[in-house]
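anyone else get weird line breaks when pasting these?? whatever heres mine. first is seq + tokens for prot A
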Amino acid sequence: MSATGLKVFDTTLQATHVWLDDLMTELGWKDERQRAYHALRAVLHTLRDRLPVDNVAHLAAQLPMLIRGIYYEGWHPAGTPVPEHSQDEFLAHVTDAFLFDVNAHSKTITQAVFKVLACHVTAGEIEKVKRALPAGIRDLWP
């Protein structure tokens, strides 16, 4: 039985749930799907804004349709990549997304999202993304 009536929507919804479940497991956030979504979104946006446009598009091509929409949400390609290069600057953006969550640790969240990405995106694409990033940010990858 189809949940939405369209196989393509059911498939992307199911894949998105798998990604969120993987992230909740990685972070030890049992039954905190909203928080996991928030983490995925914050890290994807922070990553996206630090990549050259071609890398943004190539990574997006491997994301499930629903996650791809989240990834592109609010993107302004003319302003990318942003000139920030340090790990601290990267993590500050993730921290900003969790200002009211004192138990959220931006480095742990970022590393967990990167690990989930590495599990679901081809190794070749992950290597391209990593090469496009400054060394400090690259060091956050598993």
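and prot B, same format (seq, then tokens)
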Amino acid sequence: MDDGRKKAGRADLRDAALRLLARREHSLFELERKLKRKGWNKAAVSAVVQELADAGLQSDERFAESFARSRAEKAYGPVRIRAELGERGVDRALIERAFAELQVDWLAQAAKWYGRRFGDDRPQDAKEKSRRQQALARRGFDAAVIREITD
């Protein structure tokens, strides 16, 4: 491959990465994975994505804050949000920093979702109570919040 085509390919790769970032924030891991799936060279992808991160165009910290805020607004709990961020390759320290910025009342979030989902009526039996507790757990709320809401 001649030098001109190699540079054009790298420019196309950079443009593809920027298009993805223009739609929404992506973690470094996500961005690399998406570009590699599209058939771009792994070494070139890593280099271009790192350049974008160094230039401040991609930021795991911004991604973590944005993702955590978005999921919290959709009434997902901290356990699930942390797990989802981890699956997206975000470092544990960045996850904790994002949560420190978040300042969400998880009990209020869980109660709001619970009220929308189940209404004001109390569970009729232990089986129904367990089903509701499991629904809260799947949303990512911890045991203390679940007990507070369902007791």
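btw re prot B: DSSP finds nine helices and no strands in the chain. The mean pLDDT is 92.
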